[in-house]
């Protein structure tokens, strides 16, 4: 495998996966898992007699030597039936105890968050049988890390909850006690560590087993023009994903983005290319879920089976908890009762009904455990697993595809939970009333009391019903996890998040201390009442006595919640009666507080300047000394902490998080000189946020105007006007709306319709002025779920109920929107007024003038904002135009010299016209924003007089003044005119009035009371009836904004013919509102695109709305979603809702709506109503409004949630508005849901959304005696300054607190940036100071786990590496025994055939001979160099080279070892190898977990000869980028380690060479190398350096060094074979082959056979198998009885895959005259091969041959 890493697959059931050619004879590259598996197989004797004890059963008894069988045994009849029996396969439920590293599983992503043990992101993966694993970002793919560089990618952009993945267990983290049986808190620390890396997941998979329909995992390696190259992690095979096969996944699952390099996906194989090296893949969800393997396909071995593949299984046995089956003829598997197609299985009978013996069912592989005996394969026949989807929670949700975990959140309780099945020792399977998905109750959650097992006849018998609460959801098993414990169900709060700040709660006193009272609120939830809040009065010396008397343990008390912190698990309460019974509003956030508000607060601190007052939710305010009482305060002692005061808010600044309050009563201010409704000029004083502070002229009265009161048009236009204002500017036409006597200021408005009403004395300033049936201008004050409150002026309000809001569509009113209100009723007693805002109700003669002002002001404001329109033109004027181009759709003309414009098709001159033709052109419209002009060339609109003046090169306005006079008369008389539609714009129509010389006029397409939907759907050329609403005084040159405004009567359309209605039908045949049906798919054309969605035209006058949340199943920023849409684009939509009463249509473009069968998993499900929301839920939405007091986030087209300023971020955002824009996607957590009040409260705080993210801590968060982690910020003579991690707190550790001994120079121990552990010695809250201690006596052994969650994975990785190394060494001690037994694999058939014919007289000698001769067969140390990773801080790099050194020692490749070929001794082999017990001097390294330099120094004092410690110390410095310090430590190690410890010194030299190779230069590496050669055995150093060069891809340097080594160590077979392996592995075949001839000239003859054999193996692996075959044949002709060579030859042919060649070899071998022991060895090997690769006939043939051989012996 050239470009892809290799991962050693676990051993299979019948033979070990041969990742290396010769696993014997030296250090092996096997993983610890493989060593454990080999050792496990070695424990089971291959030739044990029936009934003998296995190692597991025998315990620690020594193995007994096998005796020669007695005659009775030898002559007894062999029972072939028993000999063929295998260990019975039982259905088992996976548990943590049964898991082994290397197990491959099918999982489903259930969460994406930061890691529990580091700040790096990780995937949370749900596994079968309610298990959960974690995938660190470094275990996704190597391509991802390489492509990411310094910036980690956002996993949420590449993965989604509900995504199915293939994964493999690479680690099992046990509890603190270290065992799988850990309990209590240890169980919570258990962790299943997974990897998604393709080369690990697909380890052991042969290319021949990748066929059409295979389910395979891969990582995107590169992006090409036509698709993606995919790394499958399989040697010699890669995949290609075409763009067409990725398109659907990208659009639905990948945020409509292309796949990213390094992204890991599960694919299905579509086809195999003819070169057998490339497979065509698909990632389309439908194709992948329906992919099937061919009927005749069979995996070549069990190691190639991958989770996720669908296999046809033959059911062979039904057991109590599942079924046993067989697939592909010889692979046994199980299906547990959680994973049947029925869904809920309550008994064995139901299993038998669902899965019948001899039935063939399709099932998906869930997991494969290759390390178990027998191999465990789990299958699933569940519908959601087969479809790779999730089940629906209820029947009503069919088709909606709501993720069950979101549909029914944690904490939801159910009154009826019915027991359906009892697993006495495990738990209960239950059904939930109204929910289709079953639930499982673990035995620990069945009852409050401990249950050893569940009785079938007790309280929890089958069909009994109970109350339960949901604890979670398992997407792989398709089950909810529940609790039936009454204490859990009855809890008022299951989580702290459910407790509402300010609510009154009841609790029980749990403990009374000097600091306050601990109150039990619910199980596992406790609150704390500080001493300050225990009594209603101020805190005095006698307060503690009163507390002891008032609060007794066990007493029930009433409290009010002051604040909560779910992250810290903290609930603060108050028992002050005045706060509990207070009727004043509660302050919980500065965002909701307005000046003048009243609330009760508690004095917490008093100083010379005033009092600090605390409210709820940690809201604090300052009361200045001047505001404490009406008279001057002479004695501040009358104000004490603990006193409750009613406060009046003076000033609040939520951005700076400060507030000023007063204890005084409100003061009076005289504003009599300013009348409500009067018009003024004003000067701008300051502009803050969306408020403008002014002073009225000439009274100098303070005034305030809101940004939304600058225009009748709220939104972009109002924002632009606001942005154009500067301090010092003078604004005119300001109308006084109301007075604020407490502030001494007035509220003013500049809304044109209110200004017009004030000028015409129609502004309502007194309620008596309201007359029933009349229409008045107003603005929206508040929008409620039952209606809209409007205000006229002077605080006079009226209510429009919901039914009085709109005629044809759902109301869409916003605060401060200008409206017209018709008075329906005025209550004569209390003056309450009811109004109607329906456009049909307010349309009257009274409203025409205001409708005209609405559009007229629009044009005037646009002109002032643009300041770039052509000042020489005006609407209706004519000029001479030169036709430049003539097209079918439009013409281009030039005018005024060098200016150009386009003329629409419907405004062209009649008749044929060519370019260059000159004619008169009339101005229809001037677009101020686009700086363009619309002209008409129609003869019907241009009179002869206008044409004449235009040809004279003059802008003609001859008849305009006269026409304006005529129209003014019509306006006054409320007369109507007939107009013709000339142009249709987004916000208005351009019309001509034929009866007034084709005067150009304009009409709004939206009204004051209907801003959302265009109520006009006319086409150009249509005639309409209209009322003259506004006539300018003049319309001369440069007055482009002065226009005639008409108000159209909607019922005035005059159809041209009977086909007009059909002509207006859309592509879906829709002409009227009644044609639209819910659930139907219709065609629509984009009419308008806004930041919050799109308006679409369905046909006729029918329009619909597509909200942002209905554009896609995966949310993305609005600009990203909307950039692919254009006006006029034709779309297919699904009708979501038709509101007949309000004439409103909501549509959806979600693919899951349009084609639900193709889109099972939806990344962002629809929020249909309040039932889909629950406190604590996490979801995404779009910012719909950025208001003064926070954000509004749209969760659907109907629902929006509010985010207060305090909930926007964990960090302080000074200018928070700049961080959010309308249309922005945000992830939020639901804080509170009130359907009654139609309110949804959200938070965007990362610490609330993801509990693993901790908020920044302050000094108040720490306590004296606490042990913390920190960083050295400064080193001074008096000590060191330490900053606590994840906080703003820093303080001094005095020099006397650094060490137990005197420290003369602090700088020698610590440097800036060093991480340290410290103990808090003292905290002074008043001075804001903290003191630390670093003495070792302050810490115990358990303190090494401080900050466990913050430990980075670099350290964790090194620990795992070191543990793996030690395991490997232990296993290698017994390597020879295990390898010898592995060659003779267990096969009872051959044992029985050979029974009594084992040539027992020479049995021991034969065993030794077989073992000795198979050494070559198992020795791969010379062929496969150890594949270690290059030097990196966080890698699994083997620093010390210990394996490599041992390889030299064990491989027999040194000169002395090479002689061993001639010095074999039976006596030496008979002696049993004893394991060498080595004293571990660094045993405390893991328990004390060194974190800082001083920790390493302390350990090295006790173990100066440990290269292990020295090298880890070097790695620690590299993590801090201290390369020079790492070098210095290496040199110190060489000086400190005793000269007798050669291997320890060798390890350090290798580490130094690795360091210089990665971070140094060629010169520094050469210097280290030369020094190492002088100190250590030269050949070992040369071999280590050449491996370093190979790992770092320095091919030329490696080649040069190998050349030198062949000259320097020419008699070493290891050097020659290593060089040959290097050349052949890198494709230099001829150069590698030449080395064989050269080596034979240099090597002693005794080493020739070994060397020739290994070069033959290299030919099989990297060169030409035929050449390797020729070499072996030459050797075997000279040494026909060397079974080691025959074994190697056979193994090479087996790997080559030519079955005929393998069988010929076996036939040749068994025909030789060998001893019965050797023949037995080969017959077993042949039989094992046929069982894996042949059929029943071939297996029987081997048995027949073996029997014939035995019979020949008897003869």
From TrEMBL:
Localization terms from the record: Nucleus, Nucleolus
SUPFAM superfamilies with a match to the protein in the record: Nucleic acid-binding proteins, TPR-like
Predominant location: nucleus
Keyword hit for Cell wall biogenesis/degradation: no
Gene3D superfamilies: Nucleic acid-binding proteins, Tetratricopeptide repeat domain
GO biological process: rRNA processing
Keyword entries, A-Z: Nucleus, Repeat, rRNA processing
Ranges for region Disordered: 1-76, 1341-1483
Residues covered by the S1 motif domain: 102-197, 213-284, 308-382, 411-485, 502-576, 596-664, 677-751, 773-838, 1079-1150, 1176-1245, 1265-1335
Acidic residues composition bias: residue spans: 1341-1391, 1400-1412
Recorded GO CC terms: small-subunit processome
Entry's Gene Ontology molecular function annotations: RNA binding
Positions of transmembrane segments: none
Any Pfam family the entry gives: OB_RRP5_4th
SMART domains listed in its UniProt record: HAT, S1
Stored PANTHER family: PROGRAMMED CELL DEATH PROTEIN 11 PRE-RRNA PROCESSING PROTEIN RRP5, PROTEIN RRP5 HOMOLOG
Record protein name field: rRNA biogenesis protein rrp5
Taxonomic source organism: Mortierella hygrophila
Lineage: Eukaryota, Fungi, Fungi incertae sedis, Mucoromycota, Mortierellomycotina
Gene label: RRP5
């Amino acid at each position: 495998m050239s470009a892809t890493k290799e991962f050693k697959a676990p051993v299979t059931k019948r033979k070990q996966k041969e990742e290396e050619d010769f696993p014997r004879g030296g250090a092996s590259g096997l993983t610890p898992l493989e060593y454990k598996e080999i050792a496990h197989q070695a424990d089971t004797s291959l030739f044990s007699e029936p009934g003998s004890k296995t190692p597991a059963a025998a315990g620690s008894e020594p193995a007994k030597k096998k005796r020669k069988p007695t005659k009775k045994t030898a002559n007894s009849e062999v029972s072939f039936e028993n000999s063929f029996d295998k260990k019975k396969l039982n259905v088992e439920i996976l548990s943590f105890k049964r898991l082994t590293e290397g197990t491959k599983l099918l999982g489903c992503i259930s969460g994406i968050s930061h890691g529990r043990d580091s700040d790096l992101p990780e995937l949370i993966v749900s596994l079968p049988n309610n298990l959960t694993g974690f995938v660190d970002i470094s275990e996704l793919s190597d391509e991802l890390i390489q492509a990411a560089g310094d910036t980690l990618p956002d996993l949420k952009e590449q993965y989604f909850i509900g995504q199915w993945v293939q994964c493999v267990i690479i680690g099992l983290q046990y509890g603190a006690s270290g065992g799988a049986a850990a309990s209590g808190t240890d169980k919570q620390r258990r962790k299943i560590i997974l990897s998604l890396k393709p080369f690990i997941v697909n380890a052991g998979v042969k290319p021949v087993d990748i066929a059409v329909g295979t389910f395979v995992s891969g990582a995107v390696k590169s992006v090409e023009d036509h698709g993606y190259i995919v790394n499958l992690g399989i040697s010699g095979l890669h995949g290609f994903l075409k763009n067409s096969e990725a398109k659907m996944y990208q659009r639905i699952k990948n945020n409509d983005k292309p796949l990213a390099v390094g992204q890991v996906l599960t694919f299905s194989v579509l086809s195999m290319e003819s070169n057998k090296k490339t497979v065509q893949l698909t990632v389309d969800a439908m194709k992948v879920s329906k992919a099937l393997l061919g009927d005749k396909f069979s995996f070549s071995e069990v190691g190639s089976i991958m989770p996720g593949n669908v296999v046809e299984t033959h059911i062979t046995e039904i057991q109590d908890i599942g079924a046993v089956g067989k697939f592909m003829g010889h692979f046994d598997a199980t299906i547990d009762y959680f994973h049947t197609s029925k869904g809920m299985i309550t008994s064995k009978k139901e299993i038998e009904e669902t899965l019948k013996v001899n039935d063939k069912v399709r099932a998906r592989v869930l997991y494969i455990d290759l390390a178990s005996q027998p191999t465990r394969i789990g299958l699933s026949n569940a519908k959601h697993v087969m479809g790779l989807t999730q089940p629906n929670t209820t029947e009503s949700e069919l088709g909606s595809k709501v993720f069950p975990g979101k549909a029914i959140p944690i904490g939801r309780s159910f009154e009826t939970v019915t027991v359906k099945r009892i697993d006495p020792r495990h738990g209960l399977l239950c059904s939930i009333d109204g929910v289709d998905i079953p639930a499982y109750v673990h035995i620990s959650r069945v009852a409050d009391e401990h249950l050893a097992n569940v009785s079938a006849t007790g309280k929890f018998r089958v069909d009994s019903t109970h109350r339960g609460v949901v604890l979670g959801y398992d997407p792989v098993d398709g089950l909810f996890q529940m609790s039936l414990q009454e204490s859990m169900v009855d809890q008022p709060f299951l989580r702290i998040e459910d407790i509402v700040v300010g609510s009154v709660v009841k609790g029980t006193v749990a403990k009374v201390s000097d600091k306050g009272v601990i109150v039990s609120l619910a199980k596992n939830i406790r609150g704390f009442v500080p001493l300050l809040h225990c009594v209603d009065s101020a805190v005095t010396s006698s307060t503690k006595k009163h507390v002891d008397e008032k609060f007794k343990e066990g007493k029930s008390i009433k409290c009010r919640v002051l604040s909560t912190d779910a992250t810290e698990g903290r609930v603060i309460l108050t028992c002050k009666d005045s706060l509990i019974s207070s009727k004043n509003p509660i302050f919980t956030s500065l965002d909701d507080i307005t000046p003048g508000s009243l609330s009760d607060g508690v004095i917490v601190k008093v100083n010379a300047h005033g009092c600090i007052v605390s409210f709820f939710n940690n809201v604090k305010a300052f009361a200045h000394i001047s505001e404490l009482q009406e008279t001057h305060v002479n004695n501040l002692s009358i104000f004490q902490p603990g006193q409750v005061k009613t406060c009046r808010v003076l000033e609040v600044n939520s951005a700076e998080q400060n507030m000023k309050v007063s204890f005084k009563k409100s003061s009076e201010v005289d504003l009599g000189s300013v009348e409500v409704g009067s018009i003024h000029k004003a000067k701008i004083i300051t502009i803050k946020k969306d408020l403008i502070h002014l002073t009225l002229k000439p009274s100098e009265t303070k005034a305030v105007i809101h940004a939304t009161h600058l225009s009748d048009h709220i939104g972009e236009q109002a924002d632009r006007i606001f942005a154009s204002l500067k301090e010092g500017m003078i604004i005119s036409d300001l109308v006084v709306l109301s007075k604020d006597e407490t502030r001494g200021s007035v509220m003013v408005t500049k809304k044109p319709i209110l200004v017009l009403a004030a000028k015409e004395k129609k502004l309502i300033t007194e309620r008596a002025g309201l007359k029933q049936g009349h229409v008045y201008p107003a603005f929206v004050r508040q929008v409620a779920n039952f209606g809209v409150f409007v205000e006229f002026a002077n605080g006079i309000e009226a209510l429009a109920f919901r039914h009085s809001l709109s005629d044809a569509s759902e109301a869409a009113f916003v605060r401060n929107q200008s409206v017209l209100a018709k008075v329906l009723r005025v209550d004569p007693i209390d003056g309450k007024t009811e109004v109607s805002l329906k456009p049909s109700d307010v349309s009257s003669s009274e409203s025409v003038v205001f409708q005209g002002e609405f559009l007229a002001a629009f044009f005037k404001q646009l002109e002032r904002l643009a300041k770039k329109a052509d000042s020489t033109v005006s609407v209706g004027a004519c000029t001479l135009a030169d036709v430049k181009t003539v097209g079918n759709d439009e013409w281009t003309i030039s005018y005024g010299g060098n200016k150009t414009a386009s003329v629409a098709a419907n405004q062209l001159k009649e008749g044929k016209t060519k370019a260059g033709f000159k004619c008169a052109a009339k101005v229809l419209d001037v677009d101020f924003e686009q700086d363009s002009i619309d002209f008409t060339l129609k003869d019907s609109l241009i009179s002869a007089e206008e044409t004449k003046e235009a040809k004279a090169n003059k802008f003609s306005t001859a008849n305009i003044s006269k026409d304006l006079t005529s129209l003014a008369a019509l306006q006054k008389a409320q007369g109507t005119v007939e107009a013709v539609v000339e142009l249709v714009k987004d916000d208005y129509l351009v019309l001509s009035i034929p009866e007034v010389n084709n005067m150009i006029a304009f009409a709004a397409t939206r009204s004051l009371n209907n801003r959302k939907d265009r109520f006009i759907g006319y086409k150009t050329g249509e005639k309409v009836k209209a009322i003259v609403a506004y006539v300018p005084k003049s319309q001369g040159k440069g007055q482009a904004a002065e226009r005639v405004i008409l108000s159209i009567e909607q019922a005035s359309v005059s159809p041209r013919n009977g086909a007009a209605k059909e002509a207006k039908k859309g592509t879906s045949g829709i002409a009227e509102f009644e044609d639209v049906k819910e659930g139907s798919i219709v065609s629509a054309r984009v009419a308008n695109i806004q930041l919050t969605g799109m308006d679409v035209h369905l046909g006729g006058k029918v329009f619909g709305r597509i909200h942002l949340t209905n554009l896609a199943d995966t949310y993305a920023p609005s600009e990203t979603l909307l950039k692919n849409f254009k006006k006029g684009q034709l779309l297919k939509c699904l009708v979501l809702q038709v509101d007949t009463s309000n004439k409103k249509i909501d549509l959806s473009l979600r693919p899951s709506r349009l084609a639900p069968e193709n889109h099972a998993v939806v990344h962002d499900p629809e929020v249909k109503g309040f039932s889909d929301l629950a406190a604590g839920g996490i979801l995404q939405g779009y910012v719909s409004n950025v208001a003064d007091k926070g954000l509004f986030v749209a969760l659907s087209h109907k629902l929006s949630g509010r985010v207060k300023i305090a909930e926007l971020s964990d960090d302080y955002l000074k200018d928070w508005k700049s961080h959010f824009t309308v249309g922005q996607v945000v992830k939020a957590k639901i804080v509170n849901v009130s359907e009654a009040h139609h309110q949804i409260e959200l938070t965007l705080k990362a610490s609330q959304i993801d509990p693993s993210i901790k908020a920044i801590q302050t000094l108040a968060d720490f306590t004296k005696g606490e042990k913390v982690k920190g960083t050295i910020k400064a080193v001074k003579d008096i000590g060191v300054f330490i900053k606590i991690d994840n906080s703003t707190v820093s303080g001094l550790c005095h020099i006397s607190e650094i060490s137990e001994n005197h420290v003369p120079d602090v700088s020698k121990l610590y440097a800036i940036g060093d991480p340290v552990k410290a103990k808090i010695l003292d905290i002074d809250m008043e001075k804001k100071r903290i003191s630390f201690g670093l003495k070792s006596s302050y810490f115990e052994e358990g303190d090494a786990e401080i900050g466990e969650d913050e430990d980075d994975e670099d350290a964790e990785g090194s620990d795992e590496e070191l543990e793996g190394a030690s395991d490997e060494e232990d296993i290698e001690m017994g390597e020879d025994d295990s390898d010898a037994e592995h060659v003779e694999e267990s096969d009872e058939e051959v044992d029985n055939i050979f029974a009594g014919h084992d040539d027992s007289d020479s049995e021991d000698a034969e065993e030794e001979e077989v073992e000795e001769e198979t050494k070559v067969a198992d020795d791969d140390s010379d062929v496969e160099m150890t594949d270690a990773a290059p030097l990196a801080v966080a890698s699994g790099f083997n620093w010390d080279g210990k394996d490599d050194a041992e390889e030299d020692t064990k491989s027999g490749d040194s000169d002395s070892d090479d002689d061993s070929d001639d010095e074999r001794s039976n006596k030496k082999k008979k002696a049993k190898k004893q394991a060498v017990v080595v004293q571990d001097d660094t045993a405390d390294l893991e328990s004390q977990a060194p974190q800082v330099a001083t920790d390493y120094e302390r350990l090295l004092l006790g173990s100066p000869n440990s290269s292990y410690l020295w090298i880890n110390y070097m790695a620690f410095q590299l993590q801090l980028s201290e390369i020079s310090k790492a070098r210095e430590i290496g040199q110190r190690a060489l000086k400190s380690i005793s000269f007798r410890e050669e291997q320890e010194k060798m390890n350090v030299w290798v580490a130094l060479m690795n360091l210089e190779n990665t971070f140094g230069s060629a010169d520094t590496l050469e210097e280290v190398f030369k020094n190492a050669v002088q100190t250590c055995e030269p050949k070992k150093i040369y071999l280590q350096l050449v491996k370093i060069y190979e790992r770092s891809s320095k091919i030329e340097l490696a080649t040069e060094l190998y050349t030198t080594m062949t000259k320097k160590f020419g008699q070493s077979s290891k050097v020659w074979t290593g060089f040959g392996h290097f050349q052949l592995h890198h494709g230099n075949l001829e150069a590698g082959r030449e080395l064989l001839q050269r080596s034979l000239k240099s090597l002693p003859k005794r080493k020739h056979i070994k060397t020739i054999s290994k070069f033959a193996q290299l030919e099989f692996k990297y060169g030409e198998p035929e050449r390797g075959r020729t070499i072996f044949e030459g050797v075997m002709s000279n040494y026909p009885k060397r079974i080691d060579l025959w074994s190697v030859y056979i193994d090479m042919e087996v790997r080559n895959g030519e079955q005929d060649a393998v069988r010929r070899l076996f036939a040749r071998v068994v025909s030789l005259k060998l001893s019965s022991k050797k023949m037995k060895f080969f017959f077993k090997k042949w039989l094992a091969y046929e069982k894996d690769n042949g059929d029943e006939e071939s297996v029987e043939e081997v048995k027949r041959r073996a029997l014939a051989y035995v019979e020949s012996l008897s003869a």
